[in-house]
UniProtKB/TrEMBL annotation:
It holds the Pfam family Peripla_BP_6. This is Branched-chain amino acid transport system substrate-binding protein. It comes from the Bacteria. It comes from Azospirillum picis. CDD domains: PBP1_ABC_ligand_binding-like. Residues 1-22 are annotated as: Disordered. InterPro entries: BCAA_transport, Leu-bd, Peripla_BP_I. Gene3D superfamilies: 3.40.50.2300. Belongs to the leucine-binding protein family. Residues 56-420 form the Leucine-binding protein domain. Residues 10-19 have a biased composition (Low complexity). Keywords: Amino-acid transport, Signal, Transport.
């Protein structure tokens, strides 16, 4: 923007029109300063006016787009982009989906996603969050899949006073920090780990077998470490024995010694938290060393990534995993299939629990911004606090979305699925199961 010199007349005004006074000069300086301040603050979403029809609403999205989890990041990005395309009416919206479609209270402003790549590194995630806020002038942030990255990126958002909506990270402590600007739609690991032990107790009743010896095998970032603590506590509370507890280095390139320890402890069940590369490596090592428990209970993440079954084939069969989404629940909720079909058409893959949560996060955030009718941080935060989306408006098998005082969705629920014939089938809770559990896991050479 070009401004006239404070001691000259505006362009096109004769210099002889009236004399320049000290008062007029000061007024001009104050006016220029006010305009510059308004422009700068508006760029950060502070004091911004309601959007005009030609405006775009910039949302920063932070995912692992390069590095070991890049294939996961690509699917998360595709899911977020699908949500934006539906919101922007680039493709028809399935009836009943709550996603701020058309942004009517924002006069038709378009959502623009601005992506950051955290590479699986918490410090890079924090840097990307700051870049998106200060340089890209985003109104809100979403991401970041890795719990340890979400922790650092959301700290930056908290410092700047920018809403951060997390769709995929499950470390329970993320919503125990009492942050003002942090919201999470997905259930957390406290619920998921509790579900595992309840599932094992239900399986004991169904089979008559004792499943009381458990091996823990978790990666050592925030997510895996917190999961281990929860598992140890709940095992004691529910009277399960920990046969072996291993917390291995994330992104390790070999697991031989760890798997040998697991095998020697002879657990009936393995509970495992691994991202994609580690999940694949562990399964290959189990087979090489001839180790096979009665059940492998995976904590989602790498075991539910589309690349896992592409790589493992039949060796990935019969893994049981906690989940938040399943395609076979479409008979109970038609939106699941309708939106999944759009995902398949655009990206060539079905949703999984990771990508379905990424889609839902953008949809929930857009709905809040539309209801806010403005892109100011306080307006978006207030709208998020007032969110009350029914189950019928979601593609998730939840009771809805409604945030508590710490920003945690109170209405999320978990499923347990098992890989059967190359598909993830819901096996628990038993009243919504579409397939019975294949138990115990068939031998490696019997598949």
């Amino acid at each position: 923007m070009r401004f006239a010199d404070a001691n000259s007349e505006p362009t096109g005004t004769p210099s002889t029109s009236r004399p320049v006074t000290r008062r007029r000069t000061m007024a001009r300086l104050l006016g220029v300063a006010a305009l510059l301040a308004t422009t700068a603050l508006g760029g950060l979403g502070i004091g911004a006016a309601p959007a005009r029809a030609e405006d775009e609403i910039r949302i920063g999205v932070i995912y692992p787009l390069t590095g070991a989890a890049a294939s996961t990041g690509v699917e998360l990005k595709a899911a977020a982009e699908l949500a934006a395309a539906i919101i922007n009416k680039e493709i028809p919206a399935p009836a009943g989906l709550v996603a701020g479609v058309g942004m009517p209270h924002m006069k038709g402003a378009k959502i623009r996603l601005v992506f950051g790549d955290h590479q699986g590194n918490p410090q890079v995630g924090a840097t990307e969050a700051e870049r998106l806020i200060t340089s890209e002038k985003v109104a809100a942030l979403a991401g970041a899949y890795f719990s340890n990255v979400t922790a650092t990126a959301s700290q930056v958002a908290e410092r700047y006073g920018v809403p951060f909506l997390n769709g995929e990270s499950s470390s329970a402590t993320l919503t125990q920090r009492h942050f003002k600007w942090f919201f999470r739609t997905t259930p957390h690991d406290d619920l998921f780990v509790t579900n595992f032990f309840t599932f094992l107790e239900d399986m004991e009743k169904k089979t008559g077998d004792k499943l009381r010896t458990v091996g823990l095998f978790n990666e050592n970032t925030l997510w895996g470490n917190e999961t281990t603590k929860l598992q140890v506590k709940l095992a004691a509370d529910r009277k399960f024995d920990i046969a072996e507890k291993i917390v291995y280095p994330a992104k390790t390139t070999q697991m031989t010694s760890e798997v040998q320890r697991l095998k020697a402890s002879k657990p009936a069940v393995i509970m495992q938290s691994s991202y994609l590369g580690d999940a694949i490596l562990s399964m290959k090592t189990y087979k090489e060393l001839g180790f096979l428990p009665k059940m492998l209970l995976a904590n989602d993440a790498g075991f539910n990534d589309s690349e896992f079954l592409k790589t493992m084939g039949k060796d990935g069969e019969f893994v049981i995993s906690r989940e938040v989404w399943a395609l076979d629940q479409a008979d109970r909720n038609p939106l699941i299939r309708q939106v999944n079909d759009l995902m398949k058409q655009r990206s060539g893959v079905d949703f999984n629990g990771n990508s379905a949560r990424a889609f839902t996060a953008i949809a929930v955030l857009a709905d809040a911004i539309d209801r806010a009718g403005a892109t100011t941080p306080d307006a978006i935060r207030k709208a998020l606090q007032e969110t009350d989306i029914p189950a019928t408006g979601l593609i998730m098998p939840w009771k809805g979305v409604k945030f508590d005082a710490d920003g945690q969705n109170e209405l999320g629920q978990g499923l347990i699925v098992q890989v059967q014939n190359g598909q993830y089938a819901t096996v628990w809770p038993f009243d919504v199961a579409t397939k019975p559990v294949v138990y115990p896991m068939p031998a490696w050479d019997g598949r």
